[in-house]
Amino acid sequence: MQNIQYYHDAFVKHLETYITPKEPCSLYEPIHYILQLGGKRLRPILTLMTSEIFGSSYQKALSAALSVEVFHNFSLVHDDIMDDAPLRRGKETVHEKWDINTGILSGDAMLIMAYQLFENYEPHVFQGLAKLFSKTALEVCEGQQYDVDFETRDDVTVPEYLKMIEYKTAVLVGASMKMGAIVAEASEACQNGIYAFGKNLGIAFQLQDDYLDAFGDPETFGKQIGGDIIENKKTYLYLKALEYLNDNDRKQLEHLYSISPTDPTDKIETVKQYFISSGSAEATKTKIQDYTQMAYEVLDDLKISDAHKVGLKAFGDMLMNRDV
Q1: At what angle do helices 42-53 and 171-183 cross, to 10 degrees?
Q2: Both ends of the chain: CA-CA distance in Å?
Q3: Domain 1-184 coded CATH 1.10.600.10
Q4: Cα-flanking dihedrals φ and ψ of residue 73, to 5°?
Q5: CATH 1.10.600.10 residue ranges in the chain?
Q6: I need a labelling partner for 29 at 20 to 30 A (CA). Which of 15, 36, 83, 208 fits?
Q7: Is 187-324 in CATH node 3.40.50.1000?
Q8: pTM, entire model
Q9: Partners of 87 in the beta sheet?
């Protein structure tokens, strides 16, 4: 098991060989554009890492890792269209740089390309990867629909929110790790165990993202602080604040989430104070720790070396202590 940067560099090098000029340019240029925008490359790194943890080489997992990354970026292209988002990783979104029809069609092509990459494997490995991928892709769509539904609902519960982030974000993290185990032909118990590790870490990761959106450092977070507050997103922070606040303060918070002022500075600061005073901010940090610990407990039963367990815990600690 190598360090994270090693897997990152190996994956980016492989990605560069995948991005070659194709016709029609108007279909493939947007695909190459979004794939080259950067990002953490977290999911493909996990696929490569897991493959080696279970005794294979990371090179054997490169096609599976690339499939995960292509699928993830496909979902971003379509999400950006749904959100009418102007920027992705600080650059123009695909539908803004080209147009909506191009974004839809290029995204569709990326989904097909993600499946196509499994053809590089033996039939039994192909079957395992495709079965997991189909299940995960559908769950990601379900998670996105829950997220859309929540925008017009005032009765979203904490369990519903946790289910939404599990499907929208965490299942793909779990699947990324399980794909590495499938490529390495690990036992079914090991495949399911590493999936559970990844899924729990994925939920913790998204809760951490929600927390950083409100309380992160503007210099390092890479996005506008308070973006979820501006968009009136019903995050864990918001839902727990409603649960903890007295009637008067709850009504004030609900009112703030019903308005969209031209200058949102005061709204952001007031909402953040409600998150702190209610105990919601602290409750969110506790929940992040809970899911991280659940992930670590899975490792106790995994038949991998102690050194690999230490490495996976160190990776989890790095994710949970990030400020970006």
Answers
A1: 40
A2: 24
A3: yes
A4: -75, -30
A5: 1-184, 187-324
A6: 83
A7: no
A8: 0.93
A9: 92
